[in-house]
Amino acid sequence: MKFLLVFDFDHTIIDENSDTWIVRCAPERKLPNGLRNSYQPGHWTEYMDRVFVYLGDNGVKEDEMKRTMTTIPFTAGMIDLLGFIGENKELFDCIIVSDSNTVFIDWILKAADFHKVFDEVFTNPAAFSSTGYLNVQHFHAHHCAKCPKNLCKRKVLKEFLDKQLEQGVSYTQIVYIGDGGNDLCPVMFLKKNDIAMPRQGYTLEKKISQLARSLSPVQCSVLAWSSAIDIMSYLKLLIKE
Protein backbone atom coordinates (compact mmCIF):
# COMPACT_ATOMS: atom_id res chain seq x y z
CA MET A 1 0.00 0.00 0.00
CA LYS A 2 1.71 3.12 -1.22
CA PHE A 3 0.42 6.61 -2.01
CA LEU A 4 1.80 9.05 -4.55
CA LEU A 5 1.84 12.71 -3.56
CA VAL A 6 2.26 15.14 -6.45
CA PHE A 7 3.10 18.73 -5.49
CA ASP A 8 3.20 21.92 -7.48
CA PHE A 9 5.83 24.33 -6.10
CA ASP A 10 5.00 28.05 -6.47
CA HIS A 11 2.04 29.14 -4.28
CA THR A 12 1.75 25.52 -3.09
CA ILE A 13 4.95 24.51 -1.27
CA ILE A 14 6.19 28.09 -1.08
CA ASP A 15 3.76 30.96 -0.53
CA GLU A 16 5.07 33.03 -3.46
CA ASN A 17 6.04 32.70 -7.10
CA SER A 18 9.79 32.00 -7.18
CA ASP A 19 10.11 33.57 -10.65
CA THR A 20 8.65 36.91 -9.57
CA TRP A 21 10.47 36.85 -6.19
CA ILE A 22 13.86 36.93 -7.95
CA VAL A 23 13.00 40.46 -9.18
CA ARG A 24 13.99 41.60 -5.65
CA CYS A 25 17.59 41.21 -6.89
CA ALA A 26 17.05 43.71 -9.72
CA PRO A 27 18.09 47.38 -9.44
CA GLU A 28 15.37 49.12 -7.37
CA ARG A 29 13.65 45.72 -7.09
CA LYS A 30 11.88 46.14 -10.42
CA LEU A 31 12.20 45.34 -14.10
CA PRO A 32 12.13 47.89 -16.90
CA ASN A 33 8.71 48.23 -18.57
CA GLY A 34 9.97 46.97 -21.94
CA LEU A 35 11.14 43.73 -20.35
CA ARG A 36 8.01 43.35 -18.21
CA ASN A 37 5.78 43.83 -21.25
CA SER A 38 7.73 41.35 -23.38
CA TYR A 39 5.93 38.33 -21.89
CA GLN A 40 3.74 36.40 -24.34
CA PRO A 41 1.12 33.91 -23.06
CA GLY A 42 2.44 30.33 -23.02
CA HIS A 43 6.07 31.51 -23.26
CA TRP A 44 6.95 32.18 -19.62
CA THR A 45 10.25 30.27 -19.77
CA GLU A 46 11.57 32.46 -22.59
CA TYR A 47 10.47 35.53 -20.65
CA MET A 48 12.34 34.35 -17.53
CA ASP A 49 15.44 33.73 -19.61
CA ARG A 50 15.36 37.43 -20.60
CA VAL A 51 14.89 38.39 -16.94
CA PHE A 52 17.99 36.36 -16.00
CA VAL A 53 19.99 38.08 -18.77
CA TYR A 54 18.91 41.46 -17.36
CA LEU A 55 19.96 40.44 -13.84
CA GLY A 56 23.31 39.18 -15.16
CA ASP A 57 23.87 42.38 -17.13
CA ASN A 58 23.31 44.30 -13.90
CA GLY A 59 25.95 42.31 -12.06
CA VAL A 60 23.60 40.14 -9.97
CA LYS A 61 25.65 37.10 -8.95
CA GLU A 62 24.69 33.55 -8.01
CA ASP A 63 25.24 33.97 -4.26
CA GLU A 64 22.98 37.05 -4.11
CA MET A 65 20.25 35.20 -6.01
CA LYS A 66 20.58 32.23 -3.68
CA ARG A 67 20.35 34.41 -0.55
CA THR A 68 17.22 36.08 -1.92
CA MET A 69 15.50 32.83 -2.93
CA THR A 70 16.04 31.13 0.41
CA THR A 71 14.06 33.90 2.18
CA ILE A 72 10.80 32.89 0.45
CA PRO A 73 8.28 31.80 3.10
CA PHE A 74 6.73 28.35 2.97
CA THR A 75 2.94 28.14 2.77
CA ALA A 76 1.16 27.98 6.17
CA GLY A 77 1.55 24.51 7.69
CA MET A 78 3.86 23.28 4.89
CA ILE A 79 6.91 22.77 7.14
CA ASP A 80 4.80 20.49 9.39
CA LEU A 81 3.37 18.64 6.40
CA LEU A 82 6.76 17.98 4.78
CA GLY A 83 8.14 16.87 8.15
CA PHE A 84 5.23 14.42 8.50
CA ILE A 85 5.77 13.03 4.98
CA GLY A 86 9.50 12.67 5.71
CA GLU A 87 8.70 10.57 8.79
CA ASN A 88 6.37 8.31 6.77
CA LYS A 89 8.38 7.85 3.56
CA GLU A 90 7.65 4.10 3.53
CA LEU A 91 4.01 4.97 2.76
CA PHE A 92 4.47 7.97 0.46
CA ASP A 93 6.30 8.53 -2.78
CA CYS A 94 6.52 12.25 -3.30
CA ILE A 95 7.29 14.24 -6.47
CA ILE A 96 7.27 17.90 -7.52
CA VAL A 97 6.01 18.93 -10.96
CA SER A 98 6.64 22.64 -11.38
CA ASP A 99 7.06 25.40 -13.93
CA SER A 100 9.84 26.94 -11.80
CA ASN A 101 13.40 25.69 -12.42
CA THR A 102 15.89 23.20 -10.99
CA VAL A 103 18.21 25.84 -9.48
CA PHE A 104 15.50 27.67 -7.48
CA ILE A 105 13.79 24.53 -6.21
CA ASP A 106 17.09 22.91 -5.26
CA TRP A 107 18.23 25.99 -3.30
CA ILE A 108 14.96 26.33 -1.41
CA LEU A 109 14.53 22.65 -0.52
CA LYS A 110 18.17 22.20 0.54
CA ALA A 111 18.20 25.36 2.67
CA ALA A 112 15.19 24.03 4.61
CA ASP A 113 16.54 20.43 4.55
CA PHE A 114 13.48 19.07 2.71
CA HIS A 115 15.22 17.71 -0.40
CA LYS A 116 15.12 14.14 0.99
CA VAL A 117 11.31 14.25 1.23
CA PHE A 118 10.99 14.27 -2.56
CA ASP A 119 11.83 11.29 -4.77
CA GLU A 120 11.97 13.32 -7.98
CA VAL A 121 11.60 16.93 -9.12
CA PHE A 122 10.29 17.59 -12.63
CA THR A 123 10.88 21.20 -13.63
CA ASN A 124 12.65 23.37 -16.22
CA PRO A 125 16.40 22.66 -16.25
CA ALA A 126 18.53 25.66 -15.30
CA ALA A 127 22.24 26.27 -14.80
CA PHE A 128 24.71 29.12 -14.48
CA SER A 129 26.88 29.77 -17.54
CA SER A 130 30.65 30.25 -17.34
CA THR A 131 29.97 34.03 -17.35
CA GLY A 132 27.68 33.71 -14.31
CA TYR A 133 24.31 34.12 -16.05
CA LEU A 134 21.42 31.81 -15.13
CA ASN A 135 19.92 30.08 -18.17
CA VAL A 136 16.63 28.19 -18.12
CA GLN A 137 15.34 25.75 -20.74
CA HIS A 138 12.08 24.01 -21.60
CA PHE A 139 11.39 20.87 -19.56
CA HIS A 140 10.21 18.92 -22.63
CA ALA A 141 8.27 19.13 -25.89
CA HIS A 142 4.61 18.02 -25.96
CA HIS A 143 1.46 18.22 -28.08
CA CYS A 144 -1.04 19.33 -25.45
CA ALA A 145 -2.98 22.40 -26.58
CA LYS A 146 -4.08 23.20 -22.99
CA CYS A 147 -0.61 23.63 -21.49
CA PRO A 148 2.26 26.12 -21.76
CA LYS A 149 4.74 25.26 -24.49
CA ASN A 150 7.49 24.10 -22.13
CA LEU A 151 5.56 21.80 -19.77
CA CYS A 152 2.50 19.56 -19.77
CA LYS A 153 2.12 18.26 -16.22
CA ARG A 154 -0.24 15.46 -17.34
CA LYS A 155 2.48 14.10 -19.64
CA VAL A 156 5.01 14.22 -16.78
CA LEU A 157 2.64 12.40 -14.41
CA LYS A 158 1.66 9.76 -16.97
CA GLU A 159 5.32 9.04 -17.88
CA PHE A 160 6.28 8.82 -14.19
CA LEU A 161 3.44 6.34 -13.47
CA ASP A 162 4.37 4.23 -16.52
CA LYS A 163 8.01 4.11 -15.41
CA GLN A 164 7.00 3.12 -11.86
CA LEU A 165 4.70 0.40 -13.19
CA GLU A 166 7.59 -1.07 -15.21
CA GLN A 167 9.46 -1.36 -11.89
CA GLY A 168 6.47 -3.06 -10.27
CA VAL A 169 5.27 -0.01 -8.32
CA SER A 170 1.59 0.93 -8.43
CA TYR A 171 -0.22 3.32 -6.12
CA THR A 172 -3.32 2.88 -3.97
CA GLN A 173 -4.14 6.54 -4.53
CA ILE A 174 -2.66 9.65 -6.14
CA VAL A 175 -3.02 12.89 -4.18
CA TYR A 176 -2.44 15.96 -6.38
CA ILE A 177 -1.70 19.21 -4.51
CA GLY A 178 -1.60 22.42 -6.54
CA ASP A 179 -3.02 25.86 -7.17
CA GLY A 180 -2.57 27.01 -10.76
CA GLY A 181 -4.28 26.77 -14.13
CA ASN A 182 -1.55 24.45 -15.43
CA ASP A 183 -2.48 21.94 -12.69
CA LEU A 184 -5.89 21.31 -14.27
CA CYS A 185 -4.53 19.13 -17.10
CA PRO A 186 -3.00 16.50 -14.74
CA VAL A 187 -6.03 16.68 -12.42
CA MET A 188 -8.27 15.73 -15.37
CA PHE A 189 -6.07 12.66 -15.84
CA LEU A 190 -6.74 11.41 -12.27
CA LYS A 191 -9.10 8.47 -11.70
CA LYS A 192 -12.10 8.02 -9.44
CA ASN A 193 -10.06 6.75 -6.49
CA ASP A 194 -7.58 9.65 -6.65
CA ILE A 195 -7.93 13.07 -5.03
CA ALA A 196 -7.18 16.59 -6.19
CA MET A 197 -6.36 19.10 -3.48
CA PRO A 198 -6.58 22.61 -4.94
CA ARG A 199 -5.53 25.58 -2.84
CA GLN A 200 -8.60 27.52 -1.73
CA GLY A 201 -9.32 30.69 -3.70
CA TYR A 202 -6.70 30.00 -6.39
CA THR A 203 -7.09 29.32 -10.13
CA LEU A 204 -7.15 25.50 -9.95
CA GLU A 205 -10.05 25.47 -7.49
CA LYS A 206 -11.99 27.96 -9.67
CA LYS A 207 -11.39 25.91 -12.83
CA ILE A 208 -12.51 22.66 -11.16
CA SER A 209 -15.69 24.44 -9.97
CA GLN A 210 -16.37 25.75 -13.49
CA LEU A 211 -16.12 22.22 -14.88
CA ALA A 212 -18.58 20.95 -12.26
CA ARG A 213 -21.01 23.76 -13.14
CA SER A 214 -20.78 22.95 -16.85
CA LEU A 215 -21.61 19.31 -15.95
CA SER A 216 -18.25 17.90 -17.01
CA PRO A 217 -16.72 17.42 -13.55
CA VAL A 218 -13.32 15.84 -12.94
CA GLN A 219 -13.40 12.09 -12.18
CA CYS A 220 -11.39 12.29 -8.95
CA SER A 221 -12.53 13.53 -5.53
CA VAL A 222 -11.77 17.17 -4.73
CA LEU A 223 -10.80 18.57 -1.35
CA ALA A 224 -9.67 22.20 -1.12
CA TRP A 225 -7.07 23.34 1.43
CA SER A 226 -6.10 26.69 2.88
CA SER A 227 -3.31 25.50 5.18
CA ALA A 228 -1.05 22.49 4.59
CA ILE A 229 -2.35 21.23 7.97
CA ASP A 230 -5.58 20.41 6.07
CA ILE A 231 -3.53 18.20 3.73
CA MET A 232 -1.77 16.55 6.67
CA SER A 233 -5.11 15.76 8.35
CA TYR A 234 -6.27 14.03 5.16
CA LEU A 235 -3.02 12.01 4.86
CA LYS A 236 -3.34 10.90 8.50
CA LEU A 237 -6.83 9.57 7.72
CA LEU A 238 -5.46 7.75 4.66
CA ILE A 239 -2.80 6.00 6.75
CA LYS A 240 -5.38 4.93 9.38
CA GLU A 241 -7.59 3.29 6.73
Automatic annotation (TrEMBL):
InterPro entries: HAD-like_sf, HAD_hydro_PyrdxlP_Pase-like, HAD_sf, Pase_PHOSPHO-typ. The active site is at 8 (nucleophile), 10 (proton donor). Its cofactor is Mg(2+). It comes from the Eukaryota. Pfam families: Put_Phosphatase. Transmembrane segments: none annotated. GO terms for molecular function: metal ion binding; phosphatase activity. Signal peptide: none annotated. Mg(2+) binds at residues 8, 10, 179. Substrate binds at residues 19, 99. Keywords: Hydrolase, Magnesium, Metal-binding. Belongs to the HAD-like hydrolase superfamily. PHOSPHO family. This is PHOP2 phosphatase. It comes from Eulacestoma nigropectus (wattled ploughbill). The lineage of its organism: Eukaryota, Metazoa, Chordata, Craniata, Vertebrata.
